[in-house]
């Protein structure tokens, strides 16, 4: 007997948000620190001024606001995917706008530590964009299904 395809839309939604919900708030915050602290250290150690420094500072401040948004949702008992749909998606779009505003060459060239950290940030932004933007758009289009997933996770006590 062959396995039948899973046509349950809630299960499909769960698979789309598996990374955020398995990572959860605790490990998600560790991931956040893995980007924020190195950015802070680089800015403390390198006194380069200009677009590259401005971009790193502004992107880190956006990230801090997103952390605040995540904390709000954690306190309200939402699954970690809920703030990711809105907060991380919005942060990614704002970061790309910042990169365009400052100019990619202005924020990644020069060989200084800030430019290197910006390259790391851009690579991470690219990876998150590939996965988060389509997932957020899909979730927005099928938001009632996402709310069913939230309810199922809450009922199963899988929100952490």
Question: Would you kindly provide a written description of the structure presented here, covering whatever features stand out?
Answer:
There is one protein chain. The protein is 81% helix and 0% strand. It has 160 residues and is mainly alpha-helical. It has one domain. α2 packs antiparallel against α6. The longest helix is centred in the C-terminal third of the chain and has 29 residues. It is elongated, with a radius of gyration of 18 Å. The N terminus is likely disordered.
What is the topological layout?
Elements: H1 9-16, H2 18-45, H3 51-75, H4 81-102, H5 104-108, H6 113-141, H7 143-155
Structure at a glance:
With 160 residues, the protein is mainly alpha-helical.
- Which structural class fits the helix and strand makeup? mainly alpha
Instruction: Tally the structural domains.
Output: 1
Radius of gyration using CA atoms only: 18 Å
Shape: elongated
Average pLDDT, all residues? 91
Number of helices: 7
What are the secondary-structure elements, in order, as H or E?
A: HHHHHHH
- How many strand elements? 0
Largest sheet: none
Q: Based on the structure, what is the oligomeric state of the protein chains?
A: single chain
Give the CA-CA distance, first to last residue. Answer: 37 Å
What is the helix content?
over 70%
């Amino acid at each position: 007997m062959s396995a039948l395809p899973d046509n349950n839309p809630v299960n499909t939604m769960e698979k789309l948000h598996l990374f955020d919900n398995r990572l959860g708030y605790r490990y998600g915050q560790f991931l956040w620190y893995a980007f924020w602290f190195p950015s802070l250290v680089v800015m403390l150690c390198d006194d380069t001024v200009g677009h590259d420094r401005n971009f790193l500072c502004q992107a880190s401040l956006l990230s801090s606001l997103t952390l605040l948004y995540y904390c709000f949702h954690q306190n309200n008992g939402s699954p970690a995917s809920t703030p990711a749909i809105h907060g991380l998606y919005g942060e990614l779009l704002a970061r790309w706008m910042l990169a365009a505003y400052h100019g990619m060459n202005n924020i990644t060239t020069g060989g200084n530590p800030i430019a290197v950290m910006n390259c790391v940030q851009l690579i991470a932004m690219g990876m998150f964009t590939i996965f988060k933007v389509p997932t957020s758009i899909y979730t927005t289009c099928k938001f009632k299904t996402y709310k069913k997933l939230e309810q199922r996770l809450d009922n199963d006590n899988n929100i952490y």
